[in-house]
Amino acid sequence: MEIVNFTPVASLFGGVLIGLAAVMLMLVLGRIMGATGILAAAIWGEDDRAWRWAILAGMVSGPALFLTLTGNWPQITVPSSTPALILGGLLVGVGVSYGSGCTSGHGVCGLARLSPRSLAATLTFMLTTGLTVYVTRHVMGG
Amino acid sequence: MRLILSYLIGLVFGLGISISGMANPEKVLNFFDIAGTWDPSLMFVMGGAVTVTFFGYRWVLKRPGPSFDQIFHLPQNRSIDLKLLGGSAIFGVGWGLSGFCPGGALPAIGTGRSEVLIFAVALIAGMGIARYVNTHLAPRFQTPSYARHSPAPHGPLTHLPHETGPKPDNT
């Protein structure tokens, strides 16, 4: 094992902001801050879609605010090939739909609510993500 | 007012994602690569986010209701079933292949990077496929437990809070 690019302070601070957003959304609208649920209901929801699009617009503005504050865009390095991005995106889309949530909904809000269902979901996807990374990096490629 | 506050909440989330490194697939994948180039940073993202949300929710959910809605819309589904675990397992494979999860990728769209846009289109397509299968094809294959836990109006997304009743117990 080799530890690389460890940024505990920035990551902790970013995590605190993510948590604050989740708390504010519950305080203001009484809703769970789950990227999956918000995106799905913004696109396919029957009603009450406007606030979800407003949140999505705010999310997308995040990197520009980061640029304004720091002078740089957030670093994005994509090691995955285009086919892996497409297949990965499809699998994530199907998976979060059936799993009823992703890292923000289950991993942050669900764990914070001490939900056993969210804990089971989070442990499951963390495990399969780790296995997939192991297979793609150390078994197939490396 | 709801829309302005929603935008600002999304902005705080997007800034948090940008600062934390969750929008960066290389960093995310390194977190899961314990056997290789390990970057433990995401433990701090999750730790910070869950801790703040845990104490924040305890405070907020004691209030009679949210500021701009009647009730707290909390998920009612408590079942740990094949749908939850299978879906989560599939999500993890996709996350491991691409390095993007929805909460990381949506803010990253704002950078305009083509890789993010490709992922986002595939993500929405995957969600659409799951919805289509669930609403048009699934009834033929439906198992009893599946039928019990899937309210029709929301398709596969039981994560969408149900619009029932007063403030429920915090599960």
Description:
The complex is a heterodimer of chains A (142) and B (171). Chain A has one domain. Chain A contains six helices and one strand, in the order E-H-H-H-H-H-H. Chain A has helices at 8-29, 35-44, 50-70, 82-99, 103-112, 116-140; one strand at residues 2-3. The longest helix of chain A is centred in the last third of the chain and has 25 residues, at 116-140. The mean pLDDT of chain A is 95. With 171 residues, chain B is an all-alpha fold. Chain B has one domain. Chain B has helices at 2-20, 25-32, 41-60, 82-98, 102-108, 114-141, 144-149; one strand at 37-38. In chain B, helix 1 (2-20) crosses helix 5 and helix 5 (102-108) crosses helix 6. Chain B starts with a helix and ends in a 22-residue tail after the last helix. Residues 143-171 of chain B have low confidence and may be disordered. Chain B: InterPro entries: DUF6691. Chain B: Pfam families: DUF6691. Chain B: Residues 160-171 have a biased composition (Basic and acidic residues).
